[in-house]
Design brief:
Its cofactor is Mg(2+). By secondary structure, the chain is α/β, with parallel strands linked by helices. The chain has 4 domains: 228 residues, ATP-grasp fold, A domain (Dna Ligase, domain 1, 2-Layer Sandwich); 87 residues, D-amino Acid Aminotransferase, Chain A, domain 1, CATH 3.30.470.20; 136 residues, Glucose Oxidase, domain 1 (3-Layer(bba) Sandwich), CATH 3.50.30.10; 220 residues, TIM Barrel (Alpha-Beta Barrel). The chain has 35 helices and 29 strands. Bound molecules: phosphoenolpyruvate and magnesium ion.
């Protein structure tokens, strides 16, 4: 008795068997189960793929036996026989991993054809031309995919053939030439035995799991190499059997806008890859209503049935063979962020899904694409398009044009913004596409490979821009008699398909409509608050617009750098007596206060956490001799003395130097003046606007409770004096950042003096790893390449190390003060998986850049749904 089954007929599987049957196999099985017309077939499991690699790249005898047995059953079901001269069964062989990797791996169609079965197929179809056309395609596909023969060799034969309408004898001649190429390249004849063809094709699909484009795709999408691919063997149906046959791809809703109408394209008398490869001019699906009305209405019914069944927008492939409709594939359709939001909202309104399900449907990072790209509206109004194509993937892009993926990548790596311009993109262009701001092609429809890949990556794309004449070799394109050369700027509008022949500024779009409905749901669901890191009134305003519930980190360093202030802080540094220092700082007081007033006004009654100064004093001092001279003249101090003073502030490692609370300990008057400004501003705004403000004053870079206690005493003393003098009641809080490992380790002690902890995960990561946050990039790429680090710990929280410290600090802090406020304000606060971690350990809030707030709100809601608290 065999312990494992490696081959499943479609009707033996179901949707839950993704890991084993791959996404495509599981879906085909599910489709059969719900009564969709799907050509018969079977799936060879992902475990068989793993076994194949484990057994020195051979398909074991027991698996071959299972394959033949399944094939026998398909023969029975279809009434056709593999290799039969009169009634041949032909199959397609396709890859299908657990997660769809569109266009990344290989497909072989028409397998089973040989010099004899081709005649049988011709008789069966009553169309000899069709049979030889299919045979030619098969030889070409088998040779390139299975044997790795260069595609161009076959294309050259086709290019030399009289192109108009190839006759049967033309096709026969082409086949002879194709077989010769095969023979020249492999040293053997084209295989005539269908079983051998099949096993070779299956092995080739297993092998394609490790082809370079699949490996790159997996790397950029975080898909594990270990999963392997399943192989689907399916009886062929033919879209190229004449005018009542065709093939197409469709989305059950518009994947670019989300609009609720079936969106697709088809080609009459064409096969398989023709539509996605951008060959021929596809017709919009609505035209099918006239071409083949019965198929159209059946198609629409099934499209709706599939969408209702899967409760999501579907991306389907279909073929019509002599008026009979078959579905070859269905999967959740990739979509732009705009479409994702609209579909989620519409589906809730249609009662198809609930709000939580809708919230889980949108990938948080996708919202990023919504918040970054658009052209400046005025500039757009003034601009004249040089060409127009199909708006295949939304967004705006501006960059220099390059005509090959290698060039695009090279110039991107040198820091240029690039746009890849091609007749059509090939699967191997993936690196060039991902290096580009935008893609422009002259061929291909909305479902062409370029369009699908760009949408998946959130890259702007315009396809079918056929009034452009590209000369890829010379590196230019011509449009309306104007030549655009390699390196010239163009701009693409992925929402209209317009192409502009110049540099155009891109700006953040306004948010409204579906976006606000959807974001409203995330706010209803999530328990963790989302605040912003914002230092200026403008940033605070933006943060509030994006839905920030407060300001988690207002850094005050920038406020000192303004032209009209830096001289006072320099005076403070240079003067030697405390009295002089205080006097200099008092000149800053009204300016700081004005800043805080504006920040409080912009924040309304939302919490605002203001952090005391956290930068090395050396940063405020002039560096070169002439600036030092200017300063000495201005302040009336001796040049040499000033130069010596400046030098005395130099630090070899400023990140570990005189910054954070260490400043306030050396210069208590800085903490005093800042507290005064913070409190007076709050009182003024409370008095003027009636806002109930509770300032949160945060002490940075604390490593132990004594540091905090010292600075807190200054803060409390100053704050209480200000409150008393104002005659107005005002609460306030004093808390600390936890960003030094020692602070995390002694958090129980620190909690006695702090009302809140805000984890500074940038410094905490820097100090825990001992890696400089500013100089890491060079080492990090080799660390990631060599898998020493799986990811950049400054972008995504390192749960095993830094996360452990945070978890420990949270527990220790709560032991001392059960209701201590908990937040995070480092860079990782924008990363969805880190947000899930912060949710899980019970943070009250996360704080991130204003533009990342929607991503964080969605990630926090998803974390709540997955692990309710
Ligand atoms: C941090 O260290 O995580 C932090 C937010 O502070 P800064 O980036 O200002 O050092
Ligand atoms: Mg810090």
């Amino acid at each position: 008795m065999k312990d494992k089954k490696y081959v499943y007929l479609f009707n033996e599987g179901n949707a839950s068997m993704r890991d084993l049957l791959g996404g495509k196999g599981a879906n085909l099985a599910e489709m059969i189960n719900i009564g969709i017309p799907v050509p018969e077939g079977f799936t060879i499991t992902t475990e068989a793929c793993i076994k194949y690699y484990g057994e020195n790249k051979t398909i074991s005898e027991d698996i071959i036996e299972e394959i033949y047995s399944a094939l026998g059953k398909i023969e029975k079901k279809t009434g056709r026989e593999f290799g039969n001269k009169e009634n041949p069964l032909l199959v397609s062989v396709r890859s299908g991993a657990k997660i769809s990797m569109p266009g990344m791996m290989d497909t072989i169609l028409n397998l089973g054809l040989n010099d004899e079965t081709v005649k049988g197929l011709g008789r069966l179809a009553g169309n000899e031309r069709f049979a030889y056309d299919s045979y030619g395609r098969f030889i070409q596909m088998f040779s390139t995919v299975v044997m790795g023969i260069e595609k161009k060799k076959f294309e050259d034969v086709l290019d030399n053939a009289e192109n108009a309408e190839l006759t049967v004898s033309d096709l026969k001649e082409i086949i002879v030439k194709f077989k010769k190429i095969y023979n020249d390249e492999t040293g053997s004849n084209f295989p005539q035995n269908p079983e051998r063809q099949l096993l070779q094709a299956i092995a080739a699909v297993f092998m394609s799991w490790y082809n370079p484009r699949a490996v790159i795709y997996r790397k950029s999408n975080g898909i594990s190499d270990k999963w392997g691919t399943a192989v689907n063997v399916q009886s062929m149906v033919f879209g190229n059997m004449g005018e009542t046959s065709g093939t197409g791809v469709a989305f059950t809703r518009n994947p670019a806008t989300g609009e609720k109408s079936v969106f697709g394209e088809y080609l009459i008398n064409a096969q398989g890859e023709d539509v996605v490869a951008g060959i021929g001019i596809p017709q919009p699906i609505i035209n099918l209503k006239e071409d083949l009305p019965e198929c159209y209405s059946q198609f629409m019914n099934i499209a709706h049935k599939l969408e209702n069944h899967y409760r999501d927008m579907q991306d389907v492939e279909f073929t019509i063979e002599r008026g009979k409709l078959y579905f070859l594939q269905t999967r959740s359709g990739r979509r732009t962020a705009q479409a994702a939001l609209r579909i989620a909202v519409d589906m809730v309104e249609e009662n198809l899904i609930g709000k939580e399900e809708a919230v889980l449907k949108v990938e948080p990072r996708q919202l990023d694409t919504l918040l970054h790209l658009n052209f400046d509206r005025d500039e757009l109004k003034r601009a004249d398009a040089i060409a127009k194509g199909l708006p295949a993937s939304q967004g705006a892009a501006c960059g220099r044009i390059y005509f090959t993926s290698e060039d695009a990548k090279k110039h991107h790596d040198h820091g240029e913004k690039v746009i890849l311009v091609k007749t059509e993109t090939l699967p191997e262009d993936i690196e060039g596409i991902s290096a580009s701001e935008g893609i422009l092609t002259t061929k291909g429809g909305m479902t062409s490979r370029a369009a699908v890949t760009a949408r998946a990556m959130g890259i702007c794309c315009v396809t079918s821009c056929n009034n452009l004449i590209i000369d890829e070799k010379a590196g230019n394109f011509k449009v309306k008699d104007r030549l655009y050369r390699k390196g010239d700027y163009i701009s693409l509008d992925g929402s209209t398909g317009n192409v502009y022949g110049k540099f155009m500024q891109t700006v953040l779009p306004e948010v409204s409509g579906y976006f606000s409905i959807f974001m409203g749901w995330t706010d209803d669901i999530k328990k963790m608050a989302v605040r912003a890191n914002a230092d200026t009134p403008g940033d605070v305003k933006k943060a509030v617009e994006f839905g920030a519930e407060g300001i988690g980190l207002c850094r005050t360093e920038r406020m000192f750098f303004n032209e009209d202030r830096i001289s006072y802080i320099r005076e403070m540094i240079v003067f030697s007596t405390e009295e002089q220092k205080r006097r200099a700082l008092y000149k800053l007081l009204p300016k700081q206060k004005e800043d805080f007033i504006k920040i409080y006004e912009a924040a309304g009654e939302r919490s605002v956490t203001i952090r005391l100064l956290d930068s090395s004093l050396y940063e405020f001092l002039p560096a070169d001799e002439s600036s030092i001279k200017n300063l000495s003249d201005k302040m009336g101090v001796n040049f040499q003395k000033l130069k010596n003073t400046v030098r005395s502030f130099h630090e070899f490692n400023p990140m570990m130097g005189q910054r954070g609370c260490r400043l306030a300990i050396s210069y208590p008057e800085i903490a005093e003046i800042q507290t005064k400004a913070i409190m007076e501003a709050a009182i003024d705004v409370k008095r003027e606007k009636g806002y109930n403000i509770v300032p949160e004053i945060m002490v940075p870079l604390v490593g132990g409770v004594r540091e905090l206690k010292y600075v807190k005493n200054i803060v409390v003393k100053t704050a209480d004096e200000v409150i008393k003098a104002s005659g107005i009641e005002l609460g306030y809080k004093v808390g600390t950042m936890i960003e030094v490992p020692r602070a995390a380790l002694t958090a129980d002690k620190i909690a006695a003096e702090a009302e809140f902890f805000s984890f500074g995960t940038d410094d905490l990561t820097q100090m825990t790893f001992g890696f400089s946050r500013d100089d890491l990039s060079k080492s990090l790429s080799s660390y990631c390449d060599k898998k020493i680090y799986e990811f950049d710990p400054f972008q995504k929280i390192d749960r095993a190390g830094v996360g452990k410290l945070i978890d420990m600090a949270v527990k220790l802090g709560r032991e001392t003060k059960a209701d201590i406020g908990l937040g995070i304000c480092g860079e990782q606060g924008r990363d969805p998986s880190s947000i899930e971690f912060f949710h899980d350990i019970g943070f009250d809030y996360i704080s991130c850049l204003p533009v990342k707030i929607p991503v964080a709100r969605l990630a926090a809601a998803q974390a709540q749904i997955k692990d309710p608290r």
